[in-house]
Each structure stands twice: as structure tokens, then as C-alpha cells.
Amino acid sequence: MKKLYRLPLMAAALGLTVATGAFAASTGVLNPTPNRESKLVVDFENATGITADPNGTGENRASINTDTQFVAEGTKSLKLDLTDVPSGGWADPAVTIPLPQPVDIHGYGVLSMDVFAPADSLNPSSTDPPGYQLYPRVTVTDPADDTKTSVVALPLRQLTNDGGWNHLVWDLKTGTDTKVTQIAFAVGTNGSRPFSGPIYLDNLRVYKGTFVGLQPDEKLIFGFDKPADKDLFTVGDAAGVAVNTDKQFISQGEGSLAVDLNGQGNGWTNNVIRADDLGTSVDMTNATALHLDVFVPSASEPDSSWQQVGFAVVGDGGNVEGFTQEFLPDQWNTFELALTPDQAKTLGHVKGIYLLRNEGADWRGPVYVDDLRAVVPTTPAAGGTTGK
Fold first, then answer.
1. Dist CA 257 CA 178 (whole Å)
2. For 260, what's the count of Cα atoms within 13 Å in the CB-facing half-sphere?
3. Does 93 sit behind a cis peptide bond, omega within 30 degrees of 0 on the bond before it?
4. Which phi and psi (to 5°) does residue 95 adopt?
5. How confident is the model over 274-290, as a mean pLDDT?
6. Strand partners, 294
7. Fewer Cβ in 10 A, N or C end of the chain?
8. Which CATH superfamily hosts domain 218-375?
9. Which residues, other chains included, contact 41 with Cβ-Cβ below 8 Å and sequence gap of 6+?
10. How confident is the model over 211-235, as pLDDT tens digits?
11. How do the domains of the chain map onto residue ranges?
């Protein structure tokens, strides 16, 4: 079913760029988790059969790129010409990538992809709000019968409005523990501000296990475990905040933060709850990403076709604010803010956090967040991703 363009999200994205410069263009590939075990699913070195006809004109807009400035892994990437795409703001699929052989992802719970979006491809002459979104559709086999397949749709991730490298991460839906035969992507934009050139996809990869909870390459910033932690927060566009002790809504530790959104909406805000001083200070100088676990019960979701959550951190030198993004309900999601070296140094130390949301109708209950943490790899994270 064709989706409508989500104006509040696009307006929010514009606000993020002006206010914080989050996900600013990088001169190199972002590689936030180089120490984690992963498996390459698609690298485009020998890819064939890829099709892209987002406007339904019969023209294949996919080709293999060999210009190394647009390559994250190996020597090639996928060039996807999205000039004047998508018509009306939505194309599903925009590109379809069949796999020569099914790839076993048993035990792998996170999908990632590197995307280079040249600034010239993001319609910089337009005065309309930007917003360039990718939505994966992963075709997997039935665990009991490889001849049967189904399509699992994953939530939107948004490209930087400034152009440059993006490292996009998706939690896989619980139960997606089989073989992948194809990956496709839908594309969404502001219908009045389509793409104005190509983007480049590379290094589609799955990671072992999940990113939920404190990992060996992470430093815990705040765990939301003590009842008094709620007093650190100022409530803005929310119905209240409390520390939850129900284990089903805790990713790790003794508690999580329950943010009551009942009756809240409709639209975008970065003033849900805010704490400028958590009473802790974690050095971010060598950090490559920030992670936060998010759990949204389906009973809390707005009665609409879309809803998003996001977060930002407060540091010594300013804030880093991410886009609001969709999530998989009724399971833990790990939201990632990938950091450039300059962003990490500017943050200095993380002192606080605030939440964002965006929706098409009023929320009906709480969402839960847990374990704010920094990824600090033990080996360099300079461009590309190792481990095939």
C-alpha cells in the first residue's frame, strides 16, 4: 500500500540540521562497531540481477559503481540513480537485490548498511523541507522449509540532510532467524523535494546476536535503575516519567525509564523529557556511537500508520541530536547515533539526555528506555567494516 508523505518528520529533520548538525557529513565511512562479529550479506563485488525502477517507467536505475570515494567495503558499491524519485514521495520497492545463494543469518539479529548520499543528490536548491528515507524489505525462508519465503518489513531510517556517509542500523524482527534470499528497499521523500541524483549503497551486513544491553565495547553512561532517577528529568511533551521495575520492560539492570506518552501528539517535538545533569560524566573522546535501548508496547502506539522516537545527548561542547525513527513494537530496539571523530571530541563528556517523538495521532501509553551507553572500540574504527 502506498504511504503518504510524513510532513512532520520532514519538518523535524530540517530542525535537526539547523539546531544540532547531527549526522553531519563525514570525510570517511562511519564504522561504529568494528569489534563486533558480523557477516557480509551483500558487497556488490560480484552482484548481479539487481533492478531499480522506482517510478515504474521500465528503466533500470541500478548499476555497479567503481569510484572508490563512494565505496565503503571492497572496490565496488551499488549506484542507485534516484533523480526525480520518488514520484509522489513514495516508491516500494525502489531497488531489489536478489542474493545468488541464500545467506544463513541464524544467530544474527542486527542489519546494517553504509549509504553515501552526495549533497547534490539531496535537491539543495529546493526550499522545501528535506527528508530522505530508506525502508528495508528482507525476504527470508521459512525455518522449517527453505522453499517457502516471506517478506519482513523493517522501519525507516533517514539519511543526513547535509550529504555524506550514513551508517544505518536496523534490529531484525524477533524470529527472523533463518536465511535471507533477497533485500529490497522502499524510498520515501517529501513529494515536493525528490532526490536530484544518485545515492550509493554498500556493505550490507548482519551482526551476531543483538545490540541490546551493555556490550563489551561499551561504557555505560546511565542505567535508569534507581527510583530517584526520575527526579533528574523535566517533563515537557509527556504525561509523566517514572522508573519501571517490571522485568519485561528492562533490557538490563534493575530498572528502566517509563515515559508516559498517553494522550500526547500529534506531531514532532524534541521536548518530551530532558535531564541536563545525570550526575555522571563519561569521556566520549574516542567514542564512535551512542546507543539507547527502546521498548514500545503495541498497546502504547498511536492509532495511526506511523510513529517514531528519537534521542539526543548533552555534552561539554553542545548536543548531538538524532532523527526520530520507527521501531519494532513489543521488542527491544537499540537506537544508534553514529559519531564522527569531531562530534565525539566536541561532546567531550556526556552529561544529559533528552527524548524526541513524532507521530500521526495521539499515543496511548508509555514507552521504555534503558541503558544509555557509549561505544568505545578497542581497535580503530577508521572506515569500512572488517570480517566477512
1. 33
2. 11
3. yes
4. -150, 145
5. 95
6. 333, 369
7. N
8. Galactose-binding domain-like (2.60.120.260)
9. 99, 103, 105, 111, 180, 183, 204, 205, 206
10. 999 999 999 999 999 999 999 999 9
11. 25-208, 218-375
Element (H, E) at 9: helix 7-19
Residue 188's CB: how many other CB atoms inside 10 A? Answer: 24
Is cis: bond before 270, omega within 30 of 0?
A: no
| E strand or H helix that includes residue 343 | helix 341-347
Q: Among the CATH numbers 3.40.50.300, 3.40.630.30, 2.60.120.260, 3.30.360.10, which is that of 25-208?
A: 2.60.120.260
Cis peptide before 86 (omega within 30 of 0): yes
pLDDT at 152 over 80: yes
Grid cell for residue 311: 534521542
Distance of CA 99 to the CA centre of its chain: 23
**Letter for the amino acid at 364?**
R
Location of C-alpha cell 503495541: 298
- Residue linked to cell 517509563: 258
Domains 25-208 and 218-375 agree in fold: yes
> Is 318 strand, coil or helix?
strand
Q: Indicate the pLDDT class of residue 187, thresholds 50, 70 and 90.
A: very high
What's the pTM?
Answer: 0.91
